[in-house]
UniProtKB/TrEMBL annotation:
UniProt-listed Pfam families: Glyoxalase
InterPro entries reported in the protein's UniProt record: Extradiol_RC_dioxygenase (IPR052537), Glyas_Bleomycin-R_OHBP_Dase (IPR029068), Glyas_Fos-R_dOase_dom (IPR004360), VOC_core (IPR037523)
CDD domains attached to this UniProt entry: PcpA_C_like
GO molecular function: dioxygenase activity
Organism encoding this protein: Chitinophaga silvisoli
Domain VOC residues, every copy: 9-135, 149-267
Protein name per UniProt: Ring-cleaving dioxygenase
UniProt keywords, alphabetically: Dioxygenase, Oxidoreductase
Length: 312
């Protein structure tokens, strides 16, 4: 990585869910991710904000959700991030195919997309598009069959050129592969950082709802780098928010030319800022400005729990 690089890869992906309990059972249970933070949506604090990831919630491993009970399903389509892919060891292919079968998760047969990667498409309980990418390129640590973090994301666009221009000129990405209507970009050529732009001009426009992605966040090292990025994207005419304090990172948001909401989030301070690493995700954590409302908020949130032994 270039020491002057302002964007270093994917930080997190945030999606919209229906049932918070079913969401917990799917991601912490079936997929085996760790619930690293249980808080509320800071912008709509009557709903949870659930964060899943590796043991410490490392950037590049974090999948987060706003669960709205009873929300109508959205629709995949252009102008939307439609598939989030997780990285798993190639040797664990049979394990995962059997695990998906065991828990009744419908999935497509493995297909080779680019050399050295086998993709298995599936959906969560809300219909959110997911993939497991089996590969030998990921050097992140984990148990034999464990998800290592993200592998890639797939964004459908009317045309890829303007979004590609934003990624390459402002967000430190380079084009590293292409195949048919798929163009792959990355801030660094390693699993967890791939952004696939797929030209889908004949697709219907995506519609927000449960089972759709709300935004993708990219990692920036610190506040100074974040300020530089904000100046760059506003300089090209994009409407970026002010820097917002999300407690576990600071963020700016803007829409890329195809309509997908992009966030740029700082790598620190991280998820252990308000609870010990050994106990991440065990309690409802609130920022200081919401603590006076804790009793009210807890009364609005349905209790969620999981017996992980049922998913061993």
């Amino acid at each position: 990585m270039n020491k002057n690089q302002l964007v270093t890869g994917i930080h997190h992906v945030t999606a919209i869910a229906g049932s918070s309990q079913k969401n917990l059972e799917f991601y912490a249970g079936i997929l085996g991710l760790r619930l690293v933070k249980k808080t509320v949506n800071f912008d709509a604090n009557s709903v949870y904000h659930l964060y899943y990831g590796d043991e410490t919630g490392t950037p590049g491993s974090i999948m987060t959700f706003f669960p709205y009970e009873g929300l109508k399903h959205g629709r995949q389509g252009k102008g939307m991030l439609n598939t989030t892919a997780f990285s798993v060891p190639l040797a664990s292919l049979d394990y995962w195919l059997e695990r998906l079968k065991r828990f009744g998760i419908a999935h497509k047969p493995p297909v080779e997309r680019f050399e050295g990667e086998l993709a298995v498409y599936l959906e969560d309980t809300d219909g959110l598009g997911l993939e497991l990418i089996f590969n030998d390129k990921d050097d992140r640590k984990g148990d034999a069959h464990a998800i290592r973090g993200f592998y890639s994301v797939e964004i459908w666009e009317e045309g890829y050129e303007r979004t590609a221009g934003l990624l390459t000129t402002q967000l430190d990405h380079v084009l590293i592969a292409e195949k048919g209507n798929r163009f792959r970009f990355a801030a660094k050529d390693k699993p967890g950082n791939y952004v696939d732009l797929v030209c889908m001009p004949d697709s219907l426009k995506g519609l927000s709802g449960s089972g759709t992605v709300h935004h993708i966040a990219f990692t920036t090292p610190d506040g100074d780098a974040q300020t530089d990025i904000r100046q760059k994207v506003t300089g090209m005419g994009l409407n970026a928010t002010p820097i917002l304090d999300r407690k576990y990172f600071k963020s700016i948001y803007f829409r890329e030319p195809g309509g997908v909401l992009f966030e740029v989030a700082t790598a620190l301070p991280g998820f252990s800022v308000d609870e010990p690493a050994a106990h991440l995700g065990e309690q409802l954590m609130l920022p200081a400005w919401l603590e006076p409302q804790r009793t009210t908020l807890e009364s609005q949130l349905a209790p969620i729990h999981i017996d992980l032994s049922a998913y061993k």
